[in-house]
Write a structure and sequence with these properties.
Strand content: 15-25%
Number of strands: 7
CATH superfamily: Response regulator
Low-confidence stretches: 1-25
CATH class: Alpha Beta
Helix content: 40-55%
Strand order of the largest sheet: 2-1-6-7
CATH architecture: 3-Layer(aba) Sandwich
Order of helices and strands: HHHEHEHEEEEHEH
Distance between the termini: 54 Å
Length: 234
């Protein structure tokens, strides 16, 4: 071990402590369009039907109970192909937890089979202000999705719900489509299973209504994820 003068050694030790204590990167502010989008959706809770609020409250209670037990909350959003609704839910759940400053939340998505994150759904979150970067090409590309500057991105790609990096135990399985809800009545490893099916925006693919339909579904999912974390915060 090298030796230093007392004065020089103290300054070098202090510098090392400060460097170790300072995070490598701090998340920057939310992108302005995302911030506005979240604020608008948070003002639309009256558009959520009461019967859906009952199911969404189960997710809010799960978040609160996990926090009270000092445990992280892990949501895996599941649809058949992990191409549209489950990805939108994963992304907006992460943004909603951040919006309401609810710590210890991790969101994932998966399908009963793997395909690819649909470009139409990607376009919808980009219109909402998210920054999306394709990081891997191929039939099932990977995308880095951010809602803040200097944020560790969400890495989104299609996968079966029990495949890495998704948790295989002690998570809440959220069924986002009726077909997956029917075909996957038991989700291995989950501690809670809740069904909140969304209508598939795929019905409008290659029609004049395509963009409007995807935007409406994106808004609905964002609105309902915000409702979950607003209730968890209370």
């Amino acid at each position: 071990m090298k030796t230093f003068s007392v004065c020089g050694g103290l300054w070098m030790c202090l510098g090392a402590i400060l460097c170790a204590a300072e995070p490598a990167s701090l998340p920057g502010p939310r992108f302005p369009t995302v911030q506005k989008y979240l604020e608008e959706r948070a003002g639309e809770f009256d558009q959520i039907p009461d019967e859906r609020k009952v199911a969404l409250q189960k997710l809010a209670d799960y978040v609160r109970n996990r926090a009270e037990a000092g445990k992280p909350t892990r949501f895996t959003f599941i649809c058949t192909h992990n191409s549209r609704r489950s990805h939108l839910s994963q992304i907006w759940a992460a943004a909603a937890a951040d919006f309401y400053n609810v710590p210890g939340v991790e969101s994932f998505s998966g399908g009963t089979e793997a395909t690819a994150f649909n470009p139409r759904a990607i376009a919808a979150i980009e219109r909402a202000g998210m920054k999306v970067e394709k990081t891997e090409e191929g039939k099932n590309p990977r995308y880095a999705v951010r809602y803040r500057e200097a944020q560790t991105p969400l890495i989104c790609f299609s996968k079966v719900y029990k495949d890495a990096p998704n948790p295989n135990a002690d998570f809440c399985a959220v069924m986002t489509c009726s077909q997956a809800d029917k075909n996957c009545p038991v989700v291995e490893g989950c501690s809670l299973r809740v069904a909140i099916p969304f209508e598939d925006p795929k019905v409008s693919d290659d029609t004049a209504a395509e963009g409007a339909t995807y935007d409406a579904r994106c808004q609905q999912i964002c609105r309902e994820m915000l409702y979950v974390f607003s209730q968890a915060k209370e």
